[in-house]
Amino acid sequence: PREIWRRPIGPGWSSFAVRGDLVYTQEQRGEDEIVACYKLSTGERVWRHRDPVRFWESNAGAGPRGTPTLSNGRVYAFGATGILNALDATTGARIWSRNVATDAGKQVPMWGFSSSPLVLDDLVVVAAAGKLAAYDRTTGKPRWFGPNGGGYSSPQLVTLNGIDQVVFMNSSGATSMDPADGKVLWEYKWEGSPIVQPAKLEGDNLLISSADMMGGMDIRRLAISRQGTAWNVQERWQSRGLKPYFNDFVVHKGHAYGFDGSILSCIELESGERKWKGGRYG
Fold first, then answer.
1. What confidence tens digit (pLDDT) does each residue in 73-128 have?
2. Are 129 and 168 in contact (CB under 8 A)?
3. Inter-CA distances, 245 with 55, 132, 217, 223, 260, Å
4. What are the pLDDT digits (tens) for 119-128?
5. What are phi and psi of 259, to 5 degrees?
6. Which residues, in sequence order, are bridge partners of residue 206?
7. Quick check: 162 and 182 in contact, CB under 8 A?
8. 10: which residues sit within 8 A by CB, 6+ positions away?
9. pTM score above 0.85
């Protein structure tokens, strides 16, 4: 590999959203939380948006956690203290901004707000420490709030039994909501502190995981069915052969791959049986 360019940026846990020759991320610079845009080809800064807030904790350091989302010429970014910004993706000009912590009645959690925004047709949905908050995409006006909970996962759009729904992992387990009004469609109870996302499998199945303060707990396969307006959730299996914690897992050709603690592991999707495990990292 040949290094093309290098540019120092502020601390944070945000990854990158990419559009053409532009990349977007979040970072902390002093007492300002930053949404930034850089040129992919050169690393040159295009624009910065600043909010005079700072999140810090001793284990993971300073800075925002979530990754920005791009949609229809806008960038949506959710900061570690609860500020949700809708910005012009070309110039960085603010279109609207909300304090999600205030709107949802939530305190800043121990590790900071970590959700990445989910953009639907006319909504922007974020997770306020385990409680979903949906806003009008154009105006930023609050539209609905989901059930209360805790956790660091992000909302995810999936289609099950032909119905689009927002599936969300929090301290109560997995919950599915109607994007139109936030009505709960189905729930699967599982106490924990989830971080990573569920994975959609064939046959209206989901692969979900959760965690506690010691690390990943296990991974479970759910079958979701619907008869009339009634939804049913059936647990097909539980497996400790793969216990995701901070890192997401990959589904590929009938298997799931990921980190079991700090060791790579592979399980079979049909049964949850571990096929192999090996290779330590860090």
1. 999 999 999 999 999 999 999 999 999 999 999 999 999 999 999 999 999 999 99
2. no
3. 22, 21, 8, 22, 8
4. 999 999 999 9
5. -90, 125
6. 200, 222
7. no
8. 27, 28, 29, 34, 62, 63
9. yes
